[in-house]
Design brief:
single chain, alpha+beta, Rossmann fold, 2 domains, elongated
Amino acid sequence: MATITPIAYNNSGTPISGTTQLGDLAIGDTSQDYGAYPSGYTFWSTPDLDLHYVIAYPVPSGNHPNPLSIPCYVGFFKTPTKSDADFINLTEYIANQDNDPQNFLNAAEAQNWLTTNGYWNSYPVSKRILFLGDASVNTVASNISTYISATGQSITYSAVTMGTTYTGDGGITTAEYDAVFIYTNGGQTGGAGIGTAIQNYVNSGGNVISGVFLWNVYSLGFPHSAVTAFNVTNVQSNSVGSFSVVTPSPITNGIGTSLPASFSNGSPTLSSGAQQLATFTNGVNCLAVRTVGSSTLVSINAWPPNISSSSSTICKMFGNSILYATGAI
């Protein structure tokens, strides 16, 4: 069955119920019969989104050709294949037709140009992620970003080596980031205010993905049980590696079951309201999720620097956790 999005022309200045307005386009985004919409607006179905990236545009004259031979105020472009290269090429063609020639460096730039100029597009919206960790954090973020790109999704990220001074004060907000990914290692503890910054972020609806050692190195205090799915424990251990799925979820679907047998924390318990998704084969908690208000917290009892490549199971688990927490899967 084809996947489509219903789109209508609306230049009234008043959004239509059940739609998101983009320029003069009303994008259907709820489960309802837009073909029988009582307001008099005509919604047109996009080409199959499973096969193409689609770009929609308004036709103010209403004379766009269509099989029904009725006034049509919406037109569509579609890519030959669902690839970044085809999406960029099509957007550059449209920009050229608009007398605004462009040479986009990547799909995110192309998508931004389309949105700015009133075109709707089906290219996945890039999630904004803040990675906080030790000196390996750039490599961790790069591998995870590469994996996420291979799934057809995308992220834009900032990677910060925390040292002992980074507090995140004023810079960790939902306006800037869709999720924060955090782990620590030895002296890479961040400053005394980092715990408060993360808790304020969660309280305002921010999503957090956490790895190990948060509970071990914040000697000045870190609200671990308030911002992760595990309770505090200061026992370092080595995991047995392999894990078993307890509750199926998009995070573990199809990624394998083998993690590096290295660096975990001994027997963390679930924080209040958390759900266990996976355990190591020795019974120790491996993966848990928790909802706090509108925030999603995903905790993995593993060390992100063990990510050896973008195709490794541990990379996929952390990558899927980002997509899950931000609502992309």
